[in-house]
């Protein structure tokens, strides 16, 4: 009987979620055509003679070249790569390989010899769990096994992705304080197995990484049980570099260990996890830089090219990948036209692989770029700014601007100052276009993270993911865009975030076009600065441009 009630509740929840998502998409997409028409009529003709005084309504020649049909051509390609390959473009799949090949091919064939294309390749581990993992506890002379099943609703525990293997081993068990998001939570845990509750302000991967720095021996995560969907063991990924055996327990199993720890002097747990290793598979970054421009002063424009396994990732991040491609190809076309003044800086466009498992492509690039063996013109310190575009076409969108002043503690103040200038320049453009805008998270949860952590200013746009649009936002957007165009308050910005339904239908074309125009404007605006170094770094650059030893990506939306 209780099971039926739970199933009923879940079914109802699923139905409501889908209904809301469908309603949101339908309503928003219908409104696009009207809104586009309305805006087109207010657009003044474009002059394309010189870029020192762009006279078009978008205040940027490059922005005037952005056409929705070009973006759609790329998005349709991405969608078909997913459709033909199990509805995903995640790393390790043919959908990802085809995405990367397509981007590389476009850059090589359509850039009028203005861009030099480089492919970076790095390995990712590939393995599965062999047999059934074992977990048991013993306390006060009593021993009990937990049940393992591959059926999540029936099992007491499952393994964490990227768990280490371990032969049958006994550990003393201790409870981690709070949620295990701070170093202090791991007092007296050296050499022991730790019990960690789900939740808090950090990801599973971050907990795993913190625990490793405290020389913990094994990780037992358990779900928090506060909703019906958080009773079964959670599935999530640790860092690829994780070295600890790690299991994910149901709320009931975790709670029973918690109670034992609180009623007994000592609890031991026994673990066994066997892995089948399949070696590694390759992941790729594609970068393309302008042949012209000062290589020691590089403007980088990045976006990730991989999706999550769960879906085709057309908004996340086909939208950013296609935007980046249109910027690169349109800039190359302008460069080849002779009527457009080339920027004094090198521009490098990059498509990062493996963002969804922890910014792996961007981190690999940063690490390579600070290697002494890297050619001077490709060194990390040449990068003055990293512009990042990850999700630009959310159906219930906001015009989100990374808020430069909300960087994580420990970020170089000089890099923050430059980032704030970029945030303000984006804000000024949206204001000049009479468009609404919001400041959004800048805590390093996308590929700009390792660049910012290394002391390089960063900026970018984000149309919203699994956050919820507020009434206030709706009112502000409606006031600017017209009645009925403010989106749906109470609904997430992207109801298909990391889901099967993140298809072309999930893109709001009006919001998307404006975001890509803003990105184009920013590239041209920075490219035309007479002294970009001083503009970004009025107090000079940080003395060291380097990824800190203890850097770990604040990435995992994907948990
Ligand atoms: Zn993304």
TrEMBL record:
Residue intervals of the Peptidase M28 domain: 285-521
Molecular-function GO terms, alphabetical: metalloexopeptidase activity
Cited InterPro entries: M28_fam, PA_dom_sf, PA_domain, Peptidase_M28
Cofactor(s) recorded in Swiss-Prot or TrEMBL: Zn(2+)
Domain PA per the UniProt entry, residue ranges: 171-257
Top-level taxon of origin: Eukaryota
SUPFAM superfamilies per UniProt: PA domain (SSF52025), Zn-dependent exopeptidases (SSF53187)
GO biological process: proteolysis
Family statement drawn from the similarity comment of this UniProt entry: Belongs to the peptidase M28 family. M28B subfamily.
Protein name listed in UniProt: Peptide hydrolase
Organism encoding this protein: Adineta ricciae
